Amino acid sequence: MGFLMADLKNSSPAAHVPAPQNRPSIAGASGKSPLRFFTPVLFSVLLLAAYQARGLFRPPPPGAGHYLHRLRQLAKTVPHNFGPWRGRDVPLPRAAVSLLRPNVDMCRQFTNIKTGQHVTLMIIDCSDTRHLAGHYPPNCYPGNGWKLLSGHPKNW
């Protein structure tokens, strides 16, 4: 579609000027651009992702190295035998070790040679608590076949 334009000053014949070409529109049926909706949503998602990622690059607090080293040394002092109890080291599941990335991981099964009772002692220390998110003990242990006998806090 076009329109006619005349130069009234010179009374020359009308010149034909083409109309602008039809270009595809990103506006929907309402005439509003979807970018008006998606831009704030996309910006919010990116902002949340950046906020979460900031912790990935956080250095350990001062003195953490000494503390973590001390825990490793203490774990080595747990005896294999005491009284009627005899202990043997058993491996932790590989999936747990790769998920937790522990600073200390010790799993020792003790047997009472008088009564035949079995007890398992696990000492796991994660230097970064974010690694514990998928391995919360009340969910993890039953998921690996352990039975919860008590859910009450106990002072030893």
Task: Please give a structural write-up.
This protein is elongated. 1% of the residues are buried. The chain has a domain at 64-143. It has helices at residues 35-53, 64-75, 94-100, 137-143, and strands spanning 2-5, 15-18, 81-82, 85-89, 104-112, 118-125. The chain has 156 residues and is of the alpha+beta class. The protein starts with a strand and ends in a 13-residue tail after the last helix. The longest helix is centred in the N-terminal third of the chain and has 19 residues, at 35-53.
Q: Helix and strand string, N-terminal first?
A: EEHHEEHEEH
The global form is elongated
Largest sheet: 4 strands, antiparallel
Taking strands numbered 1, 2, ... along the chain, how are they ordered across the largest sheet? 3-4-5-6
Approximate strand percentage: 15-25%
User: What integer value in Å does the Rg equal?
Assistant: 35 Å
N-C termini distance: 90 Å
Number of helices: 4
Poorly predicted runs are: 1-12
The count of DSSP E runs of length 2 or more, i.e. the number of strands, is 6
**Strand pairing plus helix content: what structural class?**
alpha+beta
Helix content: 25-40%
Estimate the mean pLDDT confidence: 74
Quick gist of this model?
With 156 residues, the chain is α+β, with helices and mostly antiparallel strands. It is built from 4 helices and 6 strands; from the N terminus they run ββααββαββα. The N terminus is likely disordered.
